[in-house]
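lol so apparently i was supposed to do this last week
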Amino acid sequence: TSYSMRDTVGNYTTDLNGSTSSTAAGTTFTDADDIWGNGLVTSRASAGVDAHYGAEKTFDYYKNIQGRNGIWNNGVGARSRVHYGTNYVNAFWDGTQMTYGDGTSNTHPLVELDVAGHEMSHGVTENTAALIYTGDAGGLNEATSDIFGTAVEFYANNAADTPDYLIGEEININGDGTPLRYMDKPSKDGASKDCWSSTLGSLDPHYSSGPLNHWFYLASEGSGAKVINGVSYNSPTCNASTVTGIGRAAAEKIWYRTLSTYLTSNSNYAAARTGAVKAAKDLYGVGSVQCAGIVASFAAISAPVGTETCGTTPPPTGNLLLNPGFESGVVNWTGSAGAITTNTGRPAHTGSWKMWLGGNGVTTTENESQSVTIPSAAAAPALSYWIRTDTSESGTTAYDTMKVQVISGATTTTLVTYSNVGTNATYAQKSFSLAAYKGLTITVKFLMVEDSSLQTSFVVDDTAVTTG
Ligand SMILES: [Ca+2]
Ligand SMILES: [Ca+2]
Ligand SMILES: [Ca+2]
Ligand SMILES: [Ca+2]
Ligand SMILES: [Zn+2]
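anyway here it is w/ calcium ion bound
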């Protein structure tokens, strides 16, 4: 059996054997036992299988994490060509395929995973926002590739290439063991900027990428000193703030949505900030912690502020009481046994369950209550319910009573008191303002006291606390 370095979606890898042709297909790697290369440059397949690994992990990352089916979002993989030219110290995406040089002395092929993810992410950018390669947009383009190259590295989580926020840390391109770029503090490379400024766009995109790389680190991990997978970081902020990270997974998703939904070819850092706030709201909700983290991290790189805000969580609407018509039975309410009932001795307003307090004709105290939080943004919060009463008492003395109360902290307020005087056996709806309780958690309580003889029944159904 002969194996070919090609996967089921069409990612495949070829040997250019020193060619510098932009169109040459190269020779697809084949192998007798499906064990490729030996991890050393002495085997031509070593660089090939590293490149192939990068293509597959990048494909899988976009598909499984971002829901994007390949660079072109068409389910089709890409060709990777290795052994390009002689002593060629670069790797590049040309719009159709990946090409990798062998590096200095043909012994340092540029097939590191974050490089592969970086270069192929240029293909994703081409096919989404299509950011141009100059000005702010050029920096956003380059940083997008560093962000997703790093995301692919974390996704692969390979012990032989511990995930980090460094770019090119495995290929020693500087010759002194230092990585090519640092996301926590981009200026550590001696040329990239940590903070946005109005002159940023005049820099090479590999340096104007600095602020967005810095943003990604801050959004993911937060500011200050931190050790992650054994690597020490210390990320500053440009506005003297302290930033708390929202997690890399959220930052990745927000940036991909920003890129694929809100950015266009000439987008600048201000547009990136606005788009990311929108994306965060789309993915995590208005007023979400994630959105607040996006605002804080963009502020921390001095990106221009736009008008887009995270907003505030809209107050809940509808009925805030649970089991308001008692049709779920004795749940959500706290109180006396038997008060919430299907007993047909008195009718429900709707359904078959209601709250029947009293009706005993003997000395009794009964109650039912439920706690509810009144949103501070509620326009006109109110308590309402339907009630019917009947009695065997007569005269104008209140022997049996039912109070409707609001308990807020140590204060109990009685909204209304019903009694055996003036009963009404036809259901009527009553409503009381709860405007005094905005922002508070209160307990709504129905409290009934009956004397030793002659029943009075207070039957309540279809309760509601609404925000108005
Ligand atoms: Ca690494
Ligand atoms: Ca890395
Ligand atoms: Ca009912
Ligand atoms: Ca009585
Ligand atoms: Zn690049």
